[in-house]
Amino acid sequence: MDQALACYPHGDKIAPGETPASALARELVEELGIRLETDSIRYLYTVVGPAYSQPGEVEPVCFAGSWAGEPQACAEISAIAWLTLGEAEKFAPAVQQLCTEHLHHG
After folding, report:
1. Which of 28, 45, 47, 97 is 20 to 30 A from 104, alpha carbon to alpha carbon?
2. pTM (two decimals)
3. How many domains does the chain have?
């Protein structure tokens, strides 16, 4: 992981014709090589927060669910790591906000 960059969870923009949940399933395969168990998808919330390294805001849509496979760096992902909330300063601003939101909504 490049220490000069903030950490962002996997994901990208929702393609035309996709739902947030179908975009999630696609991105998990493309970027982490894992398959989402589509019956397990549960919407949690949407967070609005500052974009990283560009003006404006982003709106990450958050889900919970189960997956099959071992996560690995694929496509444009250079590295993956499990991080704790104690490492929140490494997260991009919107991800920090997402973590705060998750603590309030569990």
Report:
1. 28
2. 0.75
3. 1
